[in-house]
Amino acid sequence: MSPRLFFEFFAAFFGTIAFALLFQVPGMYYKYCGLIGALGWMCYELLLPSATAAISTFFATVLVILLSRFFAVRERCPVTVFLVAGIFPLVPGAGIYWTAYYIVTDELAKAGERGFATFKIAVAIVLGILLVFEFPQKWFRIGSKAA
Amino acid sequence: MTDHTREALDAAALAGDILLASGAEIFRVEETIDRIAHAYGVQSSDAFVLSSGIFLTAGSEHEREFARVRHIPLSAARLDRVTAVNQLSREIEHGTYTPDEAKQRLLEIQQMPPKPSIHQVLASGVGSGCFCFLFGGDLADCAVAFVAGLILYVYLLYLVKGRLSKIATNISGGMLVTLIAVLLFRLGFGHHLGEIIIGSIIPLVPGVPFTNAIRDIADQDYIAGAVRLLDALLITFSIALGVGLVMIAYHHYIGGAVL
Questions:
Q1: Where are the beta strands (DSSP E) in chain B?
Q2: Does the pTM exceed 0.80?
């Protein structure tokens, strides 16, 4: 594991917590939000050398939502609390920026290329969300407090 | 009996109001209203929820007519309220509260203060700094993104205070962070302008409307999902427009040179 990846874990952890605070998540759930965000980002970074950005994002999203649903059942609170902040590191902010940038600088071919890549990442996130929410709720009760 | 029904449905409608206004999914709003109504023995209630309104009716041969329409504007995420209402609805199911007590408790939840502004400002800075690092910035870039993120939330919380439309807020927010990033960059702080700006605009990115839109569409709440998706897309375009406008001015100023 490269040192940069080590620091990225903490950047994703604290970055996710910062957004959990902005969305007014109760303080006792910060640690779970941070962990979910950091693990999702690690999954993305570890897959990236051997897969496209869209595929890495897809698997990272799947991991984020599996963990969110697991913690939601365990802590008995709405899954949104973990999901929204945890997914933030995967949102293609860079793609949106570079698309806008190339449009502004009149490099339309590059803008189209970037825009399409960003769209693919967004679709990967959508598919990840759709897939994991099809799983039945009882799968997530394993190891959780008695229901 | 009829008074009891009325109070029960009042409480159920209020719970729905709070959830919808705080960024909960449509199915959760409907489920909570039904759950509370049934817990109080109201059999005939029927809720229809859109992204911006709740229609709740009841009435049958045995129960009195009840109808309520509430308009709820799209607003910022308050996941603390979603959690609190969710917890309360479980307790109502266990019979802990009378309808009147439940209503009091819901009014308390509605009055829950947000996190202190200073915490939000700091979180915006930390979030911007951390995400700048994730997107490939170095430490100097992160420091600039941190400053831009701080100023962004000072602008949003103390100057805008919800007085501008969402579109104007996001265009001006995008312009502001880009302006700060460009200024600090020209003064010699930071090395990668792109990564700095990406980090700094992240607090504006519509994560909650986007994820809710997808989940609503997956639940076949197409109208609510489409409205929330439109909300998310408009915010994204507004941010991009704000960033773009400042970048055009900047390129014009430096004579079109590549950054």
A1: 46-50, 53-58, 66-71
A2: yes
Q: What is the pLDDT of residues A66-108, one digit of tens each?
A: 999 999 999 888 999 999 889 989 988 888 888 888 888 888 9
Q: What percent of chain B has pLDDT over 70?
A: 97
Taking CB atoms and an 8 Å limit, are A22 and B130 in contact across chains?
A: no
- Pick from B222, B146, B55, B210: which is nearest to A85 by CA? B210
Supply the range of the domain harboring residue B229. 117-253
The reply to whether B258 falls in a domain is no
Number of neighbours of residue B167 by Cβ within 10 angstroms? 14
Q: Which of B76, B110, B144 is the last residue of a domain?
A: B110
Say if residue B122 is in the same domain as residue B212.
yes
Domains contained in chain B, number: 2
What confidence tens digit (pLDDT) does each residue in A35-69 have? 999 999 999 999 999 999 999 999 999 999 999 99
The alpha carbon of residue A113 is apart from the nearest alpha carbon of chain B, in Å, by: 17
Nearest CB neighbour to A77, from listed B86, B214, B240 = B86
Q: Of A77, A97, A129, which has the smallest distance from its Cβ to B243's Cβ?
A: A97
pLDDT in tens, B32-46: 999 999 998 888 888
Angular region, B69: left φ>0, alpha ψ -120 to 50, beta rest: beta
What mean pLDDT is reported for chain A? 89
One domain for residues B155 and B234: yes
CA distance A31 to A27: 8
Whether A146 shows a pLDDT value over 50: the answer reads no
Q: Which residues pair with B57 in a beta bridge?
A: B46, B67
Could you tell me if residue B240 is inside a domain? yes
Same domain, B152 and B207: yes
pLDDT at residue A30 is higher than 80: yes
The reply to whether B215 and B122 lie within a common domain is yes
